[in-house]
Design goal:
The protein is mainly α and about 150 residues long. About 75% of the residues lie in helices and about 0% in strands. Helix 3 runs antiparallel to helix 4 and helix 4 runs antiparallel to helix 5.
């Protein structure tokens, strides 16, 4: 029996596209853009921008890549923790989001200092998919419960 040859399929690219689409969906529908305030939104955008630009600098082996990546990760971690602490009531999805943001920040630190990148990145990956699947379940799959009269 011959098994089908899937080597011609680029499953790694499909995985990344799906992951970025889910992340973009999470970001667009997040409530902190509407309720977070201008300062929090600016800190979050600056953190993402610094981390992205620092990553590009790191790929090109330019100076200040580590500083940009670390400052971006720190801005993201601090600003999202600030948002998390200000919420009146936190649910499981909120806890998973905070854990993912902190694990991703730890992965950036591990990239800069070249230590333990695989385990930390693996933890961040697991947290991302747990958060994404819970979000998809709560948003589109779970049916609202009927109110008891």
């Amino acid at each position: 029996m011959n098994l089908p040859d899937y080597s011609s399929l680029n499953l790694g690219l499909a995985y990344q596209i799906i992951k970025w689409a889910v992340l973009l969906m999470l970001i667009i529908t997040a409530s902190f853009w509407r309720k977070g305030g201008l300062l929090l939104n600016l800190l979050l955008v600056a953190g993402v921008a610094f981390t992205a630009i620092g990553s590009l600098f790191k790929i090109s082996h330019w100076a200040f890549a580590d500083v940009l990546m670390l400052s971006g990760a720190a801005l993201l971690a601090v600003s999202y923790t600030w948002w998390y602490r200000a919420k009146p009531q936190c649910y499981l999805l909120d806890h998973l989001k905070l854990a993912w943001v902190l694990a991703t920040g730890a992965a950036v630190v591990a990239v800069v200092f070249h230590g333990f990148i695989r385990p930390i990145a693996g933890i961040a990956e697991v947290l991302f998919w747990a958060m994404a699947l819970l979000y998809i379940y709560q948003r589109w799959i779970q049916r609202p419960t009927q109110m008891a009269d």
